[in-house]
Design goal:
This protein is α/β, with parallel strands linked by helices and 475 residues long. It has 20 helices and 14 strands. It has a five-stranded parallel beta sheet with strand order 2-1-3-4-5, sandwiched between helices. It has a five-stranded parallel beta sheet with strand order 7-8-11-6-12. Strands 9-10 form a two-stranded antiparallel ribbon. A hairpin with an 8-residue loop joins strand 9 and strand 10. The termini are far apart.
Length: 475
Amino acid sequence: MSERARVLVADDEPSIRFVLRETLESAGHEVVDVGDGDAALAALAGGEFQIAFFDIRMPGPDGLELLDRLKAMGSNVAVVIITAQTTFENTVEAMKRGALDYLAKPFSTDEVLPLVDKALRSRALENEVRELRREVSGLTQPGERLVGSSPAMLEVFKTIGRVARGDVTVLITGESGTGKELVARAIHGAGGRAAEPFVAVNAAAIPRELLESELFGHERGAFTGAVEARVGRFREASGGTLFLDEIGDMPVDVQAKLLRVLQSREVTSVGGRHPVAVDVRVVAATHRDLEQAVADGSFREDLLYRLRVVPIHMPPLRDRPEDIPILVDHFLHRYEAELAERPLILAPETLERLVDHDWPGNVRELENAIKRALVLAGSEVLSPEDFAFLTPRVAEENGPGGLESTVVEEARAALDEDEPAVYRKILPRVERALLETVLAQTKGNQIKAAALLGINRNTLRKKISDLDIDVPGRP
């Protein structure tokens, strides 16, 4: 890299210091080398370094102690731990504590310069993340903001910055609980419409009979119960942003009318005769695979193209575990005064447990877990026992008697007996159990059941008929 780094080398072996100095200075970097931990602390106090090479065993504070002190001070010096092969297991501990990497003795000079390049890239990335987070923070509601420093979140921040000032339609995808509405609010807040309304509509939470009126408005007397006219959410969001959440659950006939509105920029209310022009930026979101929905016939392909001018994907929390400590700290500071009425400390082993959990409910589940632990905490320290309610998802799904293992056993048994049409034999049994459970939960309300299942109501009706399912409350 062309950037010149200032490097600190701390090792009690003169030969190691000599090799590192020669290698680094030949590449144009400035090097300060010392023979023990105390001298390293003095050097760190006397000037700024981009990267430090610390021996894991040396007089005074050793490499791991120096690493801990730098992290406690909030320093962004990248640390490489130098270790002998016989103490290789210590590198695992070093990485846990936040070391950039390790250098195992004996090492080749070819291994050294890539580590400096890695440190400089890491610092540049961290600076970019901080800058983007400053831009994005404050654009959402008080106490709510996008949190993260992982590469995946950095890409989200970048895209928000690029699209905010434009007026293109954005489609946000990702599992439930990943923060899709926060992205929509950030786009609105960073754009030229920030002073105008931000209106959110959840297509899955509104019955199909009311959704068209909710979006486009209705005239007085347009249908039974329409005692007065309503402008609808499109016109309520005039000049601002309309956020269409769970767009994948929108009925196909309403999709057709939405497509016309996006094409013409005009809204015709239910019972109305004349279209009204609307100036609205549309941001949509879904946790569904819309490509598959198009293939299934439950989502219009032309509407997908209209919505997905710029796509933003929110990664699930299990794919960015490095963000979990940051999120935990954010939620602790946000809720501890309100729910615990005192500052609490998170034990290191507790944080390990939270990082290891797969969080099927994503950031929303983590937030609720922190709130629950704060309310029920019995001491000043949050221990792993305070999160005992978190159960491993894999064990639930794949353990003995779990759904996946049951299906595997049934399939193998059928194959062993050379039974034909294994798929058609097993799938109805799985679907029947699922549909009966959801219908029982909703007391036979098929609108709610379809929303919970994430399928179209007509699809649910057909499956009920095909599988001859008894719907609770229906003769």
